[in-house]
Fold:
Amino acid sequence: MQTDFLVIGSGIAGLTYALKTAKEFPDKKITVITKTQADETNTKYAQGGIAGVWDEEKDSYNKHIDDTLIAGDGLCNEQIVEIVVKEGPERIKEIIAYGAEFDKEETGEYSLGKEGGHSENRILHHKDVTGKEMERALLDELGSTKNIELINHCFVVDIITQHHFGYLVTKSTLDITCYGVYVLNLHSNQIEKILAKITLLATGGCGQAYRTTTNPRIATGDGIAMVYRAKGKIENMEFIQFHPTALYEPGVSPSFLVTEAVRGDGGILRNKSSEAFMERYDARRDLAPRDIVARAIDNEMKRTGTEHVYLDCRHMDKEKFIHHFPNIYQKCLSIGIDVMQHMIPVAPAAHYSCGGIKTDEWGRTSVKNLYACGECASTGLHGANRLASNSLLEAMVFGHRCFLDSKEQVDKISFGEKIPDWKATGTTEPREMILITQSQKELQQIMTDYVGIVRTDIRLERAMKRLDLLFAETEALYRSTKVSPQLCELRNLITVGYLIVKGAEFRKESRGLHFNTDHLQKSELLQNIIL
Ligand code: FAD
Ligand code: SIN
Structure:
């Protein structure tokens, strides 16, 4: 199969790009592929909303820029921050034009929420199911766009580069080029090749590398691992963001999120003695940036020997709560928690990958003809810690920028020739699929135990040793077994785990989300943290 533009991923990043490209080139072919069904994405689960400077009388670009830079703890690329903050509102208007609805006040003005690290109310939202509404609007628009082919249940195994037709490709090869991808078609169970002039990776995050995560099953870091295998550039993987308030529900995976917007509306974190402990950690209390709140909760849990803390909403207005957070209200009720009478048990969970495939200001990766945007990309916006609700915004801004750049390139590129078919000779059906599941659980346990919110050198060393063993076992299985999504995901998660540990080992300091007690500098942030 050949296509002009190949988009891998049907979340906000991939769909933003695909729609723009399809409208620009009605005579070209745009193909979107996704490994399960189209709407099963991190995007669909986004709750709090999308940040953007909406009312320039009350808010300003400079304030949003400053908030992003402060959260990013000195590692943001300031040029990229400015681009995203200034171009963001235009992109939000575009999705509104596709039909996405955001909540309004009685006055008809948009209702703007607040989340941790934001100095102003600037979060547009659709109740507590903003991502579902945005995904719906994008997929509806796609349904009425003729020249996009959407292929569900199609698992990308690897991007095709010169390596696949016999050239030695190393990290120093200057012209690594992408010719398309090998996919496992889950309808035919065959590996096929899709050749493309332009390939866009919009494969999302990697929360599944941890035992407790807010991310759905699809978030296995596939795009990041593929680019790493192709010898492309990956950066900042040590900055894994833990969301402070996932619902504590042992045995349930993924964890249900209790959006930060609840704290924005007045929710208060309390420990088992009912103390509002955030006062002891940061002057911004419950609305400090996420890295600080997650670390404080982690510390309170360790200090008091509990597996969760509480989010107290009992003082909040019931009608307003149900109006803004109907999904959370119902979910809590379904497990016997009436949030107006009982505090909600919450604990941190792996939530977002700030690093990923390194891209420039046009979403170009280090591999020719390969673009990346959305959570799988590292644009420089988030630095060491992402500001809440900046992710959906970044995905749309860079979906647009990838489109602007690739539309100028497409006619200069020809399809690759003599690309070999996938070789499956010598492989057999897996005898025990359970081995793959067990290895994935082992990986998640290693990452949770040794590479979580608080790290030490010895923990990182232990993690690496254990990952080495898992890697060797899984590679042996991969070489001898017929490819399956489960095996590929395991392989990708091990690669992502390795990249997180490697980044963490390399960073000899504590900064943003990477907190290593053997490398403490910022003593002012560390008061009350048990070491
Ligand atoms: P995704 O939406 O995750 O889409 C990834 C796509 O890639 C999927 O279609 C998947 O099938 C496809 N894919 C992956 N691997 C393969 C493969 N090997 N082959 C084929 N297809 C593949 N951010 C905010 O800004 N505001 C919020 O309020 C917010 N709330 C959140 C709440 C939750 C519970 C979670 C989990 C995240 C939240 N985030 C929020 C983060 C944000 O939702 C994500 O970062 C963003 O949606 C990622 O979009 P994406 O398009 O990059 O990837
Ligand atoms: C939330 O709603 O708390 C999540 C927001 C985000 O991840 O940006």
